[in-house]
């Protein structure tokens, strides 16, 4: 449907994963401010509401009060100091989230010009799985993909073979 129109490979992979695990129509609370991917989800038939840029480490009200069918979090949790809090407080019973994976050959991302555009966490897949489990979620589906860079060199070669992104579909564990 969107072949060749995605600005990033991760947009295409993310939308395919979302479509496969939680097809539209559905109401979505997307963590983070409105962004280009919001429009892709809306074109797919999802009704999307984004958070307002509040500090989700401190203020989790948006996830506690939302009546959305599903919460999505695409490359958000690595920016938080304490992602456990917001993940635990999500009211919805469905979650699709993606993170950049920790790469042994590259330091965590840190913008030199934007103090908020930094990765406090870059998880290994098992760490993210454990975080979700501790917060009351069961992972139903998962996928990884690479992010090759069109440059010559040792790191670009490693990026060609090493998964960079990890996405999960999880459901809230029923508690009695």
UniProtKB/TrEMBL annotation:
Gene3D superfamilies: Vaccinia Virus protein VP39 (3.40.50.150)
SUPFAM superfamilies assigned to the protein according to its UniProt record, in alphabetical order: S-adenosyl-L-methionine-dependent methyltransferases (SSF53335)
Pfam families per record: Methyltransf_23
Domain of life, per lineage: Bacteria
Name of the featured protein: Methyltransferase
């Amino acid at each position: 449907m969107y072949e060749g129109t995605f600005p990033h490979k991760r947009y295409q992979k993310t939308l395919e994963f979302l479509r496969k695990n939680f097809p539209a129509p559905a109401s979505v609370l997307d963590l983070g401010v409105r962004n280009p991917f919001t429009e892709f989800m809306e074109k797919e038939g999802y009704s999307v509401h984004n958070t307002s840029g509040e500090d989700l480490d401190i203020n989790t009200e948006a996830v506690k009060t939302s009546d959305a069918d599903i919460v999505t979090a695409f490359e958000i949790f690595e920016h938080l100091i304490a992602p456990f809090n917001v993940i635990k407080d999500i009211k919805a019973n469905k979650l699709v989230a993606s993170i950049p994976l920790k790469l042994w050959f590259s330091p965590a991302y840190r913008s030199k010009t934007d103090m908020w555009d930094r990765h406090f966490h870059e998880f290994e897949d098992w760490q993210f799985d454990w975080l979700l489990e501790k917060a009351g979620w069961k992972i139903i589906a998962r996928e990884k993909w690479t992010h090759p860079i069109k440059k010559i060199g040792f790191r670009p070669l490693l990026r060609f073979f090493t998964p960079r992104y990890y996405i999960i579909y999880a459901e809230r564990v029923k508690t009695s």
